[in-house]
Each structure stands twice: as C-alpha cells, then as structure tokens.
Please model this.
Amino acid sequence: MKYKAVIFDLFGTLIENFTRSEYESILAEMAAILKAPPNGFLRLWLDSFFERTTGVHKTQRESIEYICRTLDIEVSESQVAHALRVRQDYTARSVKPRPGSVEVLKQLKSEGYKTALISDCTCEIPNVWDVTPFAPLFDVTVFSCKAGVKKPDPRIYHIATEQLGVVTHDCLYVGDGSSRELTGALQVGMHPVLIRVPDESVDMHFIDREKDWQGPVIWSLREVLTLL
Model:
C-alpha cells in the first residue's frame, strides 16, 4: 500500500459546505427568537468561531448566553431552548453525504485502509454523528470542539495519527482547503490533496480557504481511490 490511512475533512469534502445565505438566515431566525439585533448577533456569532470550535464554549447554550450578555439582552429559558432547536435542526439537515462518499469509505475499509475524520466543528456535529451513515465507517473521529484545538494546529493531526496507530507520512489527507487545513497537513508530513466540486455555488461559506494551493487537486471523492 502507498498509504496506510486516509484522513478526511467533513465540510466541503464528505458533505456540502453551508451556503452563506442559508447560514445567515438561520442566525437571523435565532436572533429573532432571542429578540436580539440581527447584525449584532451575527457579528458575535461569527467572531466567536474559535471559542465554539475549540470547546471554550462547550455547548451552544454557552455561546448564546455569551452573546446575549454581550448585547445586554435578557432572555428566557424557552427562548434559548427554541433558538437551540433551530440551530441543531439545521445541523442535522446539513449532515447529508455527498453522492458517492459512503461508497468510497466502504471501499477503503474493505481494502484494509484505516480511516479518520478531522473536523473543525462545534458541538452540534458530535451530537448528531452517531446517527449519520458515516459513524461506522471511521476508525477515528477528531472533532475540534472535543480536542480543544483546530486546524491547522499540528496537534489536531497528531491526535488522529496517534489514535490510528500510524505515522503522518503514511496518511493521505483529503479536504476542501478551509482553515488552511492542507498546509497544516503538509507541514506535519501528510500527503494532502484538495477536493473541488465543479459546480460549486459562489454562495458557499468558507473559513480561511486556501485559494493559493499549489498541490494535487481532485474533482470527486471517487478519485481518492486512484491515489492509493
């Protein structure tokens, strides 16, 4: 085998990225429930991305309460619970496999490759993970909100390889380039490849995407199988 393990990003790789318009629409709905100024709520939600994805805010409730305190807004328990349901339902709807992703993962497993997921995400993803079709197909899952560190910090890649029992040089890393993840993977010795979708919407929501990536690029998940 050329590689012993294949490590995947989640958003933009195995599932679609959020669209900016839908993402902001959900936040506006949450703001309306909380009777918060929509622009202020949106700004603070986006500005607290690091805290939400590294577990500083351990729950979405903490994030909402933090924003309401900052905006000096008093909210009831029922308002917070309603806003949380809107956000969690949105997340659950969003974790839908891209065409072919489950089949590719099953083939990797059948051929003896170890598989891992490294995802910069908030606590909603691990909350719904076990009911997704992805759950049984990964040997290791590293969620930044649980690990306390996010990409491109070298530690998050090493958490995955240590749990897999492999060295970084034996790993193919597949991601859409958000959060400088490909550069991070390369710097720890992995073999990163960028996945692009030909008909990708210009409305997609990205975090620090690597537009200057000069390494290998694929256009579908099935191409992963040709790299092994």
Observations:
- The chain has two domains: 5-16+96-227, 20-94.
- The mean pLDDT is 93.
- The CA atoms of residues 193 and 215 lie 7 Å apart.
- The beta strands are 5-8, 114-119, 140-143, 171-175, 191-195, 217-218.
